[in-house]
Amino acid sequence: MTQFQPYLFFGGNAREAFTRYQEVFGGELDLVTNLDMPAEERMEGADDDAVMHANLAVGDTALMGSDDPTSDPFPPPQSMRVHVGLPSMEEASKAFDALAEGGEVQMPFGPVSWSPGFGMLVDRFGTPWMISADVSVEGG
Predict the structure, then answer these.
(1) Cα four-point dihedral sign 105, 70, 39, 48
(2) What's the pLDDT band for 137 if we cut at 50, 70, 90?
(3) Nearest to residue 15, comparing CAs of 67, 61, 79?
(4) 102: burial class by Cβ within 10 Å (0-12, 13-18, 19+)?
């Protein structure tokens, strides 16, 4: 089975971002730092505690990412969003509100023709999100 999984890059705050994402979505978080890498695979010029790979496994999906010590200043992501569909209005609204803290709401969470709850935002780490409730409008 083919799976597409977002891989996010951060400018030195991947640990903070993924810790927050685990707080919001739960799951198991695995972080590998530059110091954890074999000596021959360490990224030259990166701090020892820079995240070389983060994997947040939630159910049968994963969100992955790392710090990118090669970009200074670190540019925000463009032309993409991470979409998360949650099974209830309560879960979707709670996740939207949590990710919106310190970020920028671009479309408030509310009903749309395809979902009883949908919203768009950029979180405080610069990650653009679309959050939706994956329940029927009638059953929502």
Answers:
(1) negative
(2) very low
(3) 67
(4) exposed
Query: What residues have CB less than 8 Å from 13, skipping those under 6 apart?
Result: 67, 125
Q: Per-residue pLDDT for 55 more than 80?
A: yes
Range 82-133 classified under CATH 3.40.640.10:
no
Mean pLDDT of 14-35: 97
91's enclosing H/E stretch is helix 89-100
pLDDT in tens, 84-106: 999 999 999 999 999 999 999 99
Q: Does domain 7-67 have CATH number 3.30.559.10?
A: no
Q: What is the largest CA-CA distance in the chain?
A: 57
Structure-token match 């000596």, residue found: 39
Residue 51 belongs to what H/E stretch? strand 51-58
Residue range 46-72: average pLDDT? 91
Whole-number Å distance between alpha carbons of 73 and 56: 26
